Write a sequence for this structure.
């Protein structure tokens, strides 16, 4: 199996983790193993646990990390990180990485159904199990479909698209990616079709819904920070505004100290900052030339403070 995935913000991410040779690290989204490999190379007597929900990614990362005896790959969802780590005897970590969203391999492998450019079964399941995009498109009510497309795709034509989907499926089930893409394209105004492919936002919304991505991210952020040792780093790479807002809000919460009203003479809440947050990092011009998919990537990091 050929699992191609170019790790984004690679140097910046590895730098942010401040890797110690004897440290314990978790890559919650192993993908093709690009980030994991660079972490493993820097370990002497430390440990790396790499996690992925995609069985193809697990196989690829396992092969890539085979030369590194201190690295191990497990199949699972990063939202179950605490349990997965505990199952391997890990109860704390010095650095944790989350690279959120769909991988290059998942997009490029037409049979996975993530892309609106390639004809394939309407699937989109990262884990290859459970609810599929076909189930959502053919089974959700018009109102629920519109809500999913609006919330997760931020598409102002969500009601038109949902209505068109429901009308189309009355004749026959919607089972293919290009079939759905055509339905979406015909349902929006001509001007919208000139502003990028009109199916992009709906496909994003369906992918997020099928994989429960945002709920998983929220839980993973909470669990990852709790797993960190004092001085440990949580670094997260996001690719669109919905993901980034969740990470930004969580990190702002972690860095916030006293919340008493400004007119209080002394602090009575006792709250102290739990983390120190770094400025977000985006791809350099050099990286954008090599990997255009990095254009929307944003890296945020937080260091766990001693007074937690």
């Amino acid at each position: 199996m050929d699992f191609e995935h170019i790790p984004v913000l690679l140097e910046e991410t590895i730098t942010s983790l401040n890797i110690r040779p004897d440290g314990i690290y978790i890559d919650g989204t192993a993908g093709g193993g690009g980030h994991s490999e660079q972490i493993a190379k820097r370990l002497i007597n430390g440990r790396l646990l790499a996690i992925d929900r995609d069985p193809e990614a697990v196989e690829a990362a396992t092969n890539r990390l085979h030369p590194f005896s201190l690295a191990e790959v497990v199949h699972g969802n990063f939202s179950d990180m605490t349990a997965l780590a505990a199952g391997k005897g890990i109860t704390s970590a010095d650095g944790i990485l989350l690279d959120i969203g769909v991988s290059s391999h998942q997009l490029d492998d037409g049979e996975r159904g993530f892309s609106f450019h390639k004809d394939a079964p309407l699937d989109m399941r990262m884990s290859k199990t459970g609810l599929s995009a076909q189930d959502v498109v053919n089974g959700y009510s018009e109102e629920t479909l519109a809500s999913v497309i609006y919330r997760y795709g931020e598409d102002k034509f969500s009601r038109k698209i949902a209505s068109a989907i429901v009308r189309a499926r009355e004749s026959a089930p919607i089972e293919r990616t290009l079939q759905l893409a055509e339905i979406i394209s015909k349902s929006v105004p001509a001007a919208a079709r000139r502003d990028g492919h009109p199916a992009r936002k709906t496909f994003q919304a369906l992918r997020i819904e099928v994989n429960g991505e945002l709920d998983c991210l929220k839980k993973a952020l909470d669990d990852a920070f709790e797993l960190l040792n004092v001085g440990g780093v949580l670094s997260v790479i996001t690719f669109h505004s919905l993901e980034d807002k969740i990470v930004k809000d969580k990190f702002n919460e972690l860095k916030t100290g006293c919340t008493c009203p400004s007119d209080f003479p002394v602090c009575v809440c006792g709250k102290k900052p739990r983390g120190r947050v770094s400025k977000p990092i985006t791809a350099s011009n050099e990286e954008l030339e090599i990997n255009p998919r990095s254009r929307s990537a944003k890296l945020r990091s937080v260091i766990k403070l001693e007074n937690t």
In short: The two ends are 44 Å apart (CA to CA). The first strand starts at residue 24 and ends at 27.
